[in-house]
Amino acid sequence: MIYQKNIERIEELVENQNEWRSSTINLIASENVMSKRARRLMGSDFCHRYAEGHPGERYYQGTEIIDEIESRVKQHLKSLLDCEHLEVRPVSGTVANDTVFSRYIRPGDIVMVNSTSGGGHISHHRHGSVGKYSSNIINFPLMPDGYHIDVKETINILERVPVKVLIMGKSLYLFPDPVKELAPLCRDKGIALIYDAAHVLGLIAGKRFPDPLKEGADVVIASTHKTFFGSQRGIIYSNMKDTDWIKIDKGAFPGSSSNHHLDTLVSLAMTTFEFIVFGEAYADQVVRNAKTLAGALEKRGFTVEGKEFGYTQSHQVALNVKDLGGGDEAARVLKDNNIICNMNLLPFDPLSKATNPSGVRIGVQEMTRVGMEEKEMETIAELMKRCLLDGKYVGEDVRDFRKNYQIIWYSFDDDFIALEKSKQLSCTHGKV
Ligand SMILES: Cc1ncc(COP(=O)(O)O)c(C=O)c1O
Predict the structure, then answer these.
(1) What is the domain class of 279-423 according to CATH?
(2) Which residue, by CA, sits nearest to atom 16 of ligand 1?
(3) What is the CATH architecture assignment of 40-270?
(4) What are the tens digits of pLDDT across the range 59-97?
(5) Measured between alpha carbons, how far is 212 from 220 in angstroms, rounded to an integer?
(6) Is the CB of 99 under 6 A from ligand 1?
(7) Ligand 1 near 123 CB (within 6 A)
């Protein structure tokens, strides 16, 4: 067959990816792994189907079953996140962002965001989603450490400048943004406070990171696959009035999507139940692991950002690798040793350094999900030291180490349930 070689090659590449990535230490801060049960639900007949509109009010026939599933996902996510309104149709965090930004930002509006080197996401900027609606974008002023918004100076600016929208939440996100400090002034001045929880949704749901809705944000956007360990999608949630929520609803459909990838929605149902039961134990371990890894790296001679504030309160650790050839070089050396992370601008890096910034960003959520705890963080720090600081090859050591971490914890997978029973782990914190 004329395409035989191509077909075989694609199949082989997918096999290679499965084998390789399950034998690496994956520290990409925006990724995670789904449980086997959640993954098995993908690729069902739903991957062929359409369901525009809301359950019970579709524009297609044959949607009764997805209607029930979608209603259940929404109901349980709403109770997990303790909110009145929740939108599950955006197919990613960026689409969720665009849905909300399109409803709040008008041409010429002044929008205040976290700068790119201060951790803001590209969709908050001129070349991303916000820039489609207004080019009047200003940055939050930062404290000298670069990881905290200067609240006093922000209030100063908001008193003088007619800002319409604040966007908080970041991609490089070590410490919480000051939502509760700024929400009262936003309310007084009619400034919309949008919170992008793409990275920290799992920590918020697991009660290990401040809850932006409780702190006064008008609306929260998130990805469902970073610290929240589901399929790749986006959500929007809020306690706003029904009459205001309609704008978001219309923004999701028909504004930014028609069909919404039903098989990934189905697997999100499984993740939601896993989160209700295991979320708090997982989030607690994630934050403990991040703090432990940061300390273990510093002890071995790395420069770890945020030291004076305890390094991190999230799943992330930021390393300053300026003296190791920069973020591009350091991330490449790590990858060649089967340790995967990404280069990252650090606060105050000029944008011209985007292709070789001063930092690398590390996230521990995926390795936590495969059962790693504090002692494993020490091992990871040691492996990173041996390859980055001592110049040794540790790729085979990484593979050997990772062999022992193939069960997906905090899940309803049979192998995890068996492990939980045999070791009398107590990951269960709630009920579905
Ligand atoms: C703060 C922030 N918002 C939005 C996104 C976009 O999310 P997604 O990749 O789901 O489109 C990201 C991605 O990493 C992010 O860091």
Answers:
(1) alpha beta
(2) 171
(3) 3-Layer(aba) Sandwich (3.40)
(4) 999 999 999 999 999 999 999 999 999 999 999 999 999
(5) 7
(6) no
(7) yes
